[in-house]
Write a structure and sequence with these properties.
Helices cover 32% and strands 18% of the residues. The chain is α+β, with helices and mostly antiparallel strands and 155 residues long.
Length: 155
């Protein structure tokens, strides 16, 4: 399987394709916040604009967003390019930290970086607590499968 540098244009395109492949299977049923397996969802979610600096390729500043509302019931955030006008907050962080947070999915690393100032937050910082970071054991089986496939395409 081909892998791509985290946040490169090729990686973003591959992530979009995977998200589309899983969209109907991971969408909450009935709009009630429950997942297709009947487990409780994660609520309405958060939209956060993200600025990543210091990428190791020809885009030293990457503007994107993380949307936990689209597949929030499964704990699968949508990561894409561009800022959203409806974002709850904006985070700025260095590439190595963004990669570490995404690849390790460790909420402790994220919150430690916020509290030590490595992540600059503007907007409604209280929404940071609403960003779901689930361990593999907590994920719905389909979300776990998607996460594994995302790991396979990420270098």
């Amino acid at each position: 399987m081909e892998s791509f540098e985290f946040l490169s244009p090729e990686w973003i395109a591959a992530v979009r394709a995977l998200r589309e492949e899983y969209r109907d299977r991971l969408a909450p049923s009935g709009g009630d916040g429950s997942d297709p397996g009947g487990q409780p969802g994660l609520g309405a979610g958060v939209v956060a604009n993200v600025v990543v600096t210091g990428a190791p390729f020809d885009r030293p500043r990457i503007e994107g967003h993380v949307d936990t509302t689209t597949m929030a019931a499964m704990g699968v955030p949508a990561i894409d390019e561009g800022h959203r006008s409806d974002a709850d907050l904006t985070m700025e962080l260095p590439y190595d930290l963004a990669r570490g947070i995404f690849c390790r999915r460790d909420p402790q690393v994220f919150f430690e970086a916020v509290f030590t100032g490595r992540v600059k937050v503007t907007g409604d910082s209280s929404k940071l607590l609403q960003i779901p970071v689930l361990s593999a054991a907590e994920l719905h089986p389909l979300a776990a499968e998607l996460t594994r496939r995302l790991d396979e395409i990420t270098r």
